[in-house]
Amino acid sequence: MRADRVFAYGAAAGLLGDLLLGDPRRGHPVAAFGRAAGAVEKVAWRDHRGWGALHTAVCAGGAVALGAVAQRAVRPSRTASVALTAAATWAVVGGTSLAREARVIGRALQTGDVEGARERLPHLCGRDPQALDADGIARAVVESVAENTSDAVVGALVWGAVGGVPGLLGFRAVNTLDAMVGHRSPRFRRYGWASARLDDVAGWPGARLTAVLATVAGGDPRGAVRAWRADAAKHPSPNAGPVEASFAGALGVRLGGTLSYGGRVEHRPVLNGAGRTVAVHDIERAVRLSKRVSWLALGACVAARRIVKGRTS
Fold it and tell me: Where is the signal peptide (predicted)?
């Protein structure tokens, strides 16, 4: 079976598996990778960029190598190749868990349980929940749904289309390392530099595809394009900017503004300033847009891989 068909069937099965099963509560492969990366960090940590780069190379390179060995081992069998791609896709994407957590918070807000929503918010993002009222929590959820549509689904599919199973595992490894050590805390300002920069590079294509598809699948294509062009570059993240701006325009809401991470207050530029304040019902609208974008991304990645394969064969 051709490699493009293996990816198409396997990625579709993996995405469907995520839709039906979600993430396991115990024994998730990404959690196992996180524990291994944490063990490497305990040995390698120095307040130095070079040691951080070594940590990134060992952990991300190990994930890519594992994927390459597994892919090569099953290559003689079409069924095993599709099954491996499906398992890898299911392991690295997280669209269903993203939607589930967003909806749990949305239901709490709908019933007026703001404190319950605050308690649940750390499961979705790193904001300081105590600093947020109901509208602030809803805005944080919509922003997290937008950003994680790229990080947890689309980016993985893009690299799966490019590199097969090694691409899938490598992207998730890089993204996980950024979440672990890529933030600007005193401990990781230097050590996490390489992970953060590599995550920016790896996330670039997926973020742009997410923004394009949000524009296509959202309710206001012109608004999405306008917000993307006007506001994306104002965001401190080169990848979250296009994604959040296009989601804001597509949903007709205003994102960005003041937020708090780990006791540190940030005043971010407003995205889609002409939009309205985020309301609780926009959480469900964002989740539905995320799902449409995810399946469109699968179609786009499969089509792109087939086109490339056809030109090179």
Answer: none
User: Can you give the C-alpha Rg of the chain in angstroms?
Assistant: 19
103: which residues sit within 8 A by CB, 6+ positions away? 283, 284, 287
- Spatial contact of 129 and 165, defined as CB atoms under 8 Å apart: no
DSSP assignments along 184-196, one per residue: --TTTTTTTHHHH
Task: Give the Cα separation of 282 and 139 in Å (integer).
Answer: 9
Nearest 5°: the CA angle 3, 8, 12 is 145
Instruction: Take residue 166 and report the two structure tokens written for it.
Output: 């090694």
Q: How many residues does the chain have?
A: 313
Please give the model's pTM, rounded to 2 decimal places.
0.94
According to DSSP, residue 127 is labeled B
The DSSP symbol for 26 reads: S
Q: What is the pLDDT of residues 197-231, one digit of tens each?
A: 999 999 999 999 999 999 999 989 999 999 999 99
Alpha helices in 93-192 (DSSP H): 95-110, 114-120, 134-149, 155-181
Q: How far apart are CA 151 and CA 3, in angstroms?
A: 24
